[in-house]
Design a protein that fits this description.
Elements (H helix, E strand, L loop, with lengths): L17 H28 L5 H28 L2 E2 L3 E2 L23 H19 L9 H24 L4 H5 L7 H19 L15 H20 L9 H28 L4 H18 L5 H18 L2 H5 L7 H19 L18 H31 L6 H6 L1 H6 L11 H6 L51 H9 L1
Antiparallel strand pairs: 1-2
Helix pairs in contact: 1-2, 1-3, 1-7, 2-3, 2-4, 3-4, 3-6, 4-6, 4-13, 6-12, 6-13, 7-8, 7-9, 8-9, 8-10, 9-10, 9-12, 10-12, 12-13
Length: 493
């Protein structure tokens, strides 16, 4: 998954490596874990009545993309090149013509292992988009969008960037693990879709605060953990130490970005927040993804710090320009992916994955120019095609839920469930349950979760007997109006 540049290591041995195969299976499992981690990360940031929908948008991607990848996605992305734009190999259709121990080109791992590793990248990328669409998209429309998007956008772009014969690969674009193919791709797609479907009801004046910050931190921790497989595994082994350098750089850049975001937050707004720590860590992970195989640990430190500050500033752009990026996919993934991809042109040492050098290490401007071309091409293609797909769906089946459902709760409207069941004996909930689900509208309570528009409040638990402690403490609803985070973002804008 690296660019077609002069390798430093000797030719790969022809035999299957049990060590590298086991390592790659472990990395594949780590990358798979990132999608549920993302679901928790996003789920904690939405209001109580949208949690189930946010979780489902990620889990739907696991199902749909897996099926399409087996049927034709792997063939389109990594089959024999056609015109430097797409691939196709009948042996890869249905994964039916692959030998049990057939090795992936230039590696010591089976094709099956490479295919399933790449599948997890394909699953995660559309799930990233979902954060920008929180609170307002039908699950059926989202599922159809995912199927169309990976077919028209992700599979071809993966071929351009990572497959032998792909035009960006042959041009020499360095994208170690997905700065362009994953993060810029997803961030640009998110922007294209939200420009079509419009803003949440009440945005920007009435928006919900994150309902569960511990869940956000848990999700960020799972993403950080899984990202080691995402990044280090992209070298497809570690016979020459490049994967080890990428592992180290992933940790260093993530830590630097988290501290940089927190420092910016403290200077700008006077507080260190847990949401800032989680967001800064993700920003660092995004930025080191394309660049970590070409820089030193000191370079990773600089890349992470730069990305942390840039992304912290970028999350306020939605207020300046008037687009509703619910969970800052554009501000973190698009901006972080651009930063990491371009900084390769400055910090590439020429001593890790390839001999290409950046400007700070004696190289000319050529590498920076190539990186900029890759960034602009993927951004423009994904933005335009994603907006077109969203427009077609929006004008036909409709992408948004009705405004009344958005206000009363997308979880109950789309899934007949609630994330938090506070009173299992409530007859009103039993009457409304579907398929045995016993839920309730937990809106506006649970620690001041819903500061948004038009929410109903939690029904209190029955009063305890005299002298007894309350059976369930209910926190009063948060007052309506702007949250502290929204106010800070407007100041940045």
């Amino acid at each position: 998954m690296t660019a077609a540049l002069t390798p430093l290591a000797a030719a790969d041995p022809p035999a299957l490596s049990a060590a590298n195969t086991g390592f790659m299976l472990l990395c594949t499992a780590l990358v798979m874990l990132m999608t549920p981690g993302l679901a928790f990360f996003y789920g904690g940031m939405v209001r109580v009545k949208s949690v189930v929908n946010m979780l489902m948008m990620s889990f739907v991607s696991l199902g749909i993309v897996t099926v399409l990848w087996v049927l034709y996605g792997f063939s389109v992305a990594f089959g024999t090149d056609t015109a430097s734009l797409v691939g196709w190999s009948f042996d890869y259709v249905g994964l039916g013509g692959i030998g049990l121990t057939e090795l992936w080109h230039g590696s010591t791992i089976p094709v099956y292992v490479f295919a399933v590793f790449q599948l997890m990248f394909a699953v995660l990328t559309p799930a990233l988009i979902s954060g920008a669409l929180a609170d307002r998209v039908k699950i059926t429309a989202w599922a159809l969008f995912v199927a169309l998007w990976v077919t028209a956008v992700y599979f071809p772009v993966a071929h351009w960037v990572w497959s032998s014969g792909g035009w960006l690969y042959e041009l020499g674009v360095i994208d170690f693990a997905g700065g362009t193919a994953v993060h810029i791709n997803a961030g640009a797609a998110a922007l294209g879709v939200i420009l079509v479907i419009g803003k949440r009801t009440g945005f920007p004046h009435k928006t919900a605060r994150p309902h569960n910050l511990p869940l956000v931190m848990l999700g960020a921790g799972l993403l950080w953990f899984g990202w080691f497989g995402f990044n280090a595994g992209s070298w497809l082994g570690n016979d020459d130490g490049v994967g080890a350098v990428m592992f180290v750089n992933t940790q260093v850049a993530t830590a630097a970005a988290m501290l940089a975001w927190l420092g910016y937050e403290k200077l700008r707004h006077g507080a260190f927040t847990s949401l800032g720590a989680a967001s800064g860590a993700v920003a660092g992970l995004v930025a080191i993804t394309p660049s970590g195989g070409s820089c030193s640990p000191l370079g990773a430190l600089a890349i992470g710090a730069i990305a942390g500050v840039l992304c912290a500033m970028a999350v306020g752009l939605k207020h300046r320009f008037g687009y509703d990026d619910s969970l800052d996919v554009v501000g973190v993934h698009l901006v972080g992916g651009i930063a990491g991809s371009l900084l390769v042109g400055l910090f590439a040492t020429g001593g890790v994955q390839s001999d290409a050098r950046g400007l700070l290490y004696g190289g000319g401007p050529g590498l920076l120019g190539v990186q900029a071309l890759g960034v602009c091409t993927v951004l423009a293609y994904s933005l335009l095609v994603s907006a077109l797909l969203a427009l077609v769906l929006h004008r036909t089946i409709g992408m948004r839920v009705p405004e009344a459902d958005e206000i009363s709760g997308i979880d109950r409207a789309e899934h007949a469930e609630s994330a938090y069941v506070l009173d299992e004996t409530d007859p009103a909930d039993e009457a409304g349950a579907v398929g045995g689900v016993n839920g309730m509208d937990a809106v506006g309570g649970m620690g001041g979760a819903d500061g948004g528009a038009g929410g109903r409040t939690v029904r209190p638990a029955p009063a305890p007997a005299a002298g007894a402690a309350p059976a369930f403490p209910v926190t009063p609803a948060a007052p309506e109006g702007e949250t502290a985070r929204e106010k800070r973002e407007k100041v940045d804008a």
